[in-house]
Amino acid sequence: MEKAAGCPSVGGSYPQKNAEILSSQYGINLFLAGLLLTFAWAVHAVGISKSHLLSYLITLMLIQLLWMLWYLCRSCMQRRLIRDKDTHAGARWLKCGITLFAVITLILDSFKIGYYIDFSNCLSPTEGIFPVTHAVHTILQVYFLWCHAKDVIQSFKTLERFGVIHSVFTNLLLWTNGVLTESKHQLNEHKERLITLGFGNITIVLDDHAPQCNCTTTLCSIFSQGIYYLYPFNIEYHILASTMLYVLWKNIGRKVEHHQQHKTPFKFHGITVGTIFGLIVLTSTIAIVVVYLIQIGRSKIKSELALTMFYLHAIFVLALMCTAGIVALFIYRLEDRSLDNSKNPARKLDAELLVGTAAGSWLLSWGSILAIMCARAHPKYTWYNLPYSVLVIIEKYIQNLFIIESIHREQEKVNDDIKTLRIATISRGSTLSLTPSYKEIYNGRATRDSGEVPCLFKGSICGRDSGGGGAKEETSQENSSVMHSASDFSFYSRNSVTNNKRRVLKNIAAFLFLCNLSLWIPPAFGCRPEYDNGLEEIVFGFEPWIIVVNLAMPFSIFYRMHSAASLFEVNCKT
Questions:
Q1: Is the per-residue pLDDT at 16 higher than 50?
Q2: Using alpha carbons only, what angle is made at residue 390 by residues 386 and 396, rounded to the nearest 5 degrees?
Q3: What is the mean pLDDT of residues 372-386?
């Protein structure tokens, strides 16, 4: 029922705005309580054990499961109703990506269940309940996101706001728990390697939460080691789920503009060069990571060689990425295309995440630069850290500009302009149609084989006689034909240039996409020179620098995966 005229939005805006504020505050307090509990467990606070943290997380997951089941049942009962959809949210490639990470997360849960069975004599029952609950939570959540990520909720809005924001911060806490567990494992390995680099003055105290009992089966080592190799995928799964749910929360009660959404499927055609160079970078990065993990910690010489190898490879890749980004931005400056400034929660979140998570890498890079400038002794391999850190800052700066401008650029309207050429030409009262289709003209395939100029380029009359006109009329038509021909060839030339620009941009996006995947692999799987070069620990102190790395590294890792996802979208859109 419509509201009375005069103040149409006052009656509904304040309750909804208050519900948004209340739900956001509920979510923040939920997250802060869990974050403090996680921190207390990490520092071995008195009276706080891992079972307390897992019990809290299990409770949050069970509440989210109840809400999702209620929402799915209500949606099933109302399936015949026409609902608003946000066409920009929950892209199919994003759903496929989160499904892949979810499958690997389920493998991780099965490993945790096996680990609990092996050490069941000395582990809390919550450590067995947690992976089972998490597996059920993962399956139902992926199904929920596949079916309802695009929903614009218009009923039970206050209740739904609390349910969705609860889901957002539950996934953030699960992400935090995964990051902390993986970071503690990496830190223990790092402490053991420091001695081989000659930093014997650093006290090695392992922060171990290993069970204090013997394994009951022969699979213990497989489960314990496999868990940490699967954590990076679990971490990406939860952060992707939280971002998709956050967009769903922002869309609650939103008025959607109904307009036709152009589908932008991904095509490999035209991106061969970018894909080949990107695959070369990906393959070489995997090889570098394998050699690095084998050599680091074996001896001081081997560790220094591994660090030097990593820095040289990263400098080369980052330099290529900077060059590609500059070329793309230069092409954008040559084009005169307006930006789409319409309200779009998904696009706004993408831009904010790019800049916000890049700050993690920038913090580490500036710390390394300051350490190099202030250190008294400089081993040879540490000098490679300087150009590496500078390039990390510059590359993210350029790449953010490219991605943000790309996702805000309006779709090219070349096809619409070409369609206007298929008009009826009026000559002496006759309506004449043009022979070649706009697709043939656009792709330059019209009468290519015959070598003849298409009908469009021969003037306003095609394939018909003038019907007995005078000499002046023929001369006038010839002059008009020449003018039309010149204009049409100019149009064809402009579209040929546009095609070339689009092809270059698509190759750049494909190359940067694979490069970001390549740069995600080293830190995600334990190749972290910020830990291993030892220079920063000497300048800032061991504990302060480790805290900085543990806080900034998760954002740096997420930045690479989020950039890859954004560049995939850019490639589809270009």
A1: yes
A2: 145
A3: 84
Say if residue 357 is in the same domain as residue 291.
yes
Cα 160-165-169 angle, rounded to 5 deg: 155
- Based on the fold, state whether residues 101 and 159 are members of the same structural domain: yes
The highest-confidence range among 57-66, 147-156, 224-233, 336-345, by mean pLDDT, is 57-66
What average pLDDT does range 453-471 have in this prediction? 44
Tokens of 7: 């103040």
What is the tally of helices (H) and strands (E) in the chain? 16, 2
The answer to whether the CB of 350 falls within 8 A of the CB of 407 is yes
Burial 125-156 (b: 16+ CB within 10 A, else e): ebbbebbebbbebbebbbebbeebbbbbbbee
Q: Is the pTM of this model over 0.85?
A: no
Which one-letter amino acid corresponds to residue 258?
H
Domain that holds residue 556: 270-411+494-573
As a whole number, the mean pLDDT across the chain is 77
* Residue where the block lists tokens 């250190």: 375
- Count how many Cα atoms sit within 13 Å of the Cα of residue 548 in the half-sphere of its side chain: 19
- State pLDDT tens for residues 407-431: 877 665 544 444 444 443 434 444 4
